[in-house]
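Archive transcription. Copying these from loose printouts into the bound notebook so they stop getting lost. Printout 1 of 2:
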Amino acid sequence: MEEAARNFIDAFVQEDLSEGHRCYGMQIHTRFPPEPNGYLHIGHCKALTIDFGTAERFGGICNLRMDDTNPAKEDTEFVDAIKEDIHWLGFDWGDRFFYGSDYFEQTYGYAIELIKKGLAYVCELTPEQFREYRGDTNRPAVSPWRDRPIEESLDLFQRMRNGEFEEGRYTLRAKIDLASGNFNMRDPVLYRIRYIEHHRQGTKWCIFPMYDFAHPIQDAIEGITHSLCSLEYEDHRPLYDWVVSNVSIPGIKPRQIEFSRLGINHTVMSKRKLRQLVQEGYVSGWDDPRMPTLCGLRRRGYTSASIREFCDRIGVSKVPSTVDLALLESCLRDDLNANARRVMAVLNPVKLTVTNYPVGKSETLTVENNPLRPEDGTRELSFSRELWIEADDFMEEPAPKYKRMYPGNEVRLKGAYLAKCTGCVKDADGNVIEVLCEYDPDSRGGDPSDGRKVKGATIHWVDAATAADAEVRVYGNLFSDPDPDGPDKNFLDYLDPDSLNILTGCKVEHSLAEMPMPEKGKDSTGLQFMRQGYFCLDNRDAEPGHLVFNRSVALKDSFKK
């Protein structure tokens, strides 16, 4: 790697690669091991980009391994979704896709090895007794079964595998140090009995390895050089090292390095709580655009580039922190501002009649797609006597400093003409149903031939004759509280009932009716609705003839850079 180390993980890796150190002359090998019991969310992105990104920077490789050693909530649905999300972010594992359950037989064999070495034993303590005998900082743990003869433990462990005992009757424990100040080292459980069907193994197994035993073995089998994981596993590192040091797996012993997890305000990251939101109907599904899941963010219009930029900006540290959601939004806004096509959409329409424009006439105007990207070219818009404008772009009695349409005021119709408001039409209840104006025929493109200065604003519009109807969904934060998952809080109490506002009867320029529908697992085509925000077609509900747009992010950046 030519560039200087960007973070402490890179510094460790560079040290390991240097002459005389543990990885000298080797290829760096990492892994990303998600549990397939839910969808990946923005919190996983930090780990994902660290695992794959570290391998990329050092010319190494990264495995994708499903941590499916706990069969309770695992499903192939989640496996497929995880793969799709990782590919969407631009990472690839090549032919190195594995399941933790692929190693069940080998893991069982290494458990046998530990028993034969006198480093593991079958214990009969119940869960209640475990808690009772766990000890404390001044008192060691206790197990009456610690000195069980090796042959007896081997026999019982085989019978556990054969399904001869009920759940909870026996466990296999490591024999390490019952007096350790690190409670993870107080003879931790390596295997427990569970009669539950596995999503791949079926009912073949009724004993399952604990994560702290299975994970280091899997890393060692795959030749992982650096096991990069979140800070919660720092206290588990001595156990990780103990396992890989005491089983006879050839090759390099993996090195575990921890980093802080990603927290973002106004959301929750617990899979259990996200699952509850889905199962109890608080959201429309795992891909609800208010969810922090990658499929939800993708449906909302987040781009893979914006999420990778976000992960780069927050960096890597050992200090836990909560990131302002506004930073994620800022990354998306920057990406879309540079790349999104500008279009016109009227979300709360009222009719604008250009009274001096000939009845039955229509003309074509040419407008640029993105002023920041001339290579994106232009498009054609139709213009006629009747247009749609935003209802709040007209006030019969203007407020101070109001620069949009009011009687006597002249404005620019974006890309078209200057127009002076002459009045309005109201219904029987006094509601404005039509705004009236006159246009200047000599101001095509917005520049008057006499060079006069126009003090009014530039407003957007769509041609009533060609406009397409659309539904627009404006999303806010799912939770009103910045810390809905804080201590002594029930996160459900902070759900914002106004986090979704559905607008119907919106009018959009005709070109949007011809947009291709979003592709599964791909970035949505981002659009800037001028003066409104950034939007995309909904990848679930939009279809030809039924346009549904989601607001991805507002125009105004609230993040303090």
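Printout 2 of 2:
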Amino acid sequence: MALIHGLHFRNLRGDLLGGLTAAVVALPLALAFGNAALGPGGAIYGLYGAVAAGFIAALFGGTPAQVSGPTGPMSVTVAGVVSSLAAVGVSRDLASGEMLPLVMAAVVIGGLLEALLGIFRLGRYITLVPYSVVSGFMSGIGVIILILQIGPFVGIATRGGVMANIGMLLDSSSPNLAAVAVGSMTLAVVFLTPARIRQWVPSPLLALLIVTPLSLLLFNDDRLREFGVEPLARIGSIPEGGLRPVLPNFSEHWQTLLKAGAVLALLGAIDSLLTSLVADNLTQTNHNSNRELIGQGLANACSGFVSGLPAAGATMRTVINIQSGGQTPISGMTHSVVLLLVLVGAGPMAATIPTALLAGILIKVGLDIIDWGFLLRAHRLSAKTAALMYAVLLMTVFWDLIWGVLVGMFIANLLTVDGITQSQLQWMDDDNHPHAQSQEAKHLSQEEQTIIEACGNRLMLFRLRGPMSFGAARGINSRVAQLHNYEALLLDISDVPRMGVTAALAVERMIQEAESQGRIAVVAGANQQLTKRLQRFGVNKVMPDRLQALQYTQKKLGTSEEN
């Protein structure tokens, strides 16, 4: 196995161009996510995460063309960590040096847990999450981003989670008109920029380049004070000189940190692997999901030691990278190197960026994250699917990110098992005809039909099809219990490739019940694996061939007649 998955130098020009383009897109997003996650002074930490995590994820990940960096779900989770720690007395002020080491500890824990998911080869299970749950969850993340950015957009200081933000907005006196103007200009740029221009300059970067100088020109602090308006909140001073090492604090509030780490690991895995699927579709390749999780986990663990926000595979940045020619990990690493160069020399310029501008960018991100296509038509596709998606969305927004996903997966699995069970029982009903004249008996050979005709109603041929799950067990027993007028039971499992333990127990009880009433009971058509399983459960009359079982049953019934 190659040390760097998918690395080659045959596409160097395309990789360099793709990485450069992705970096241009990533710059405003990284700053915006940092500010959203950590509050005032937090923008730079989003850039740290894009540099550190983006490079390492590209180096060790399993999706060659993927670009990683801070994303909406990860920033929302970090914001939740900050709120949880603030609730137990930790100062939100990053300058105090109390909050950041704790948050970075959660980032490191999340990275290590995510890497363990890959080490234990659980990657393929992450992608088995039903689309209704993923859609509801991602739409919920989009709604959270929108709610959390309303405050900065209108110039009102808000902190905490969704409900806290809503409460602060309702209690506030009036918005800052200058902030509203800056945010509105930002939305106008990101929504109205023509496609031919966006091909060359991404709309978030264009908003950064246009609105920032306009805000300094039109809404400088002195002019705003003359009109009795509070000055615009801006990012503020950004340290120069590269990444900033920090020693994570694992010694305090470890329960909060462990829970946050688990959430970051799960969200990072889902976010990254979904983006990997998008990359596969664009490049016509196949990613290595377990390797991707290991790479993303290592990236986040390392990012936590240099004050970087946690990262995941970023869909928009990955798509732009691929469309610009990126194919290998060189593109993702190039993206990080370019951002590092910006970090070293562009601190003074970035410090003047208004937070309302970043809020406008994130509002566009939040709207893009919401799965509008599925959200608006889910009710026409399936009432159950729609109800599940909306339930996950509401739980994600108003309860808890991780519990929203877990409860959604639990309900989705119950619905899936119920659907499979109904199909299994329907097959059972369709094929449960003892008479050879029935239409459903056409799967029988002529010799088999002759034997069944000779036995008449004294023989009950009970046929099962498909994998038998635990959900079908109760149905098997209940259906057989309704049948009384027969002397011999032949359970045909020729078309059952596998049978769960619970279903095997149901078969055992079916056979025991028949034998306790003096009836002949035979199982036919079991493969080698099923035969061994049934014999371990005490079912000894198991024959590999249905015709053989019918001949045996006919003989037994004939012996009974002679006696």
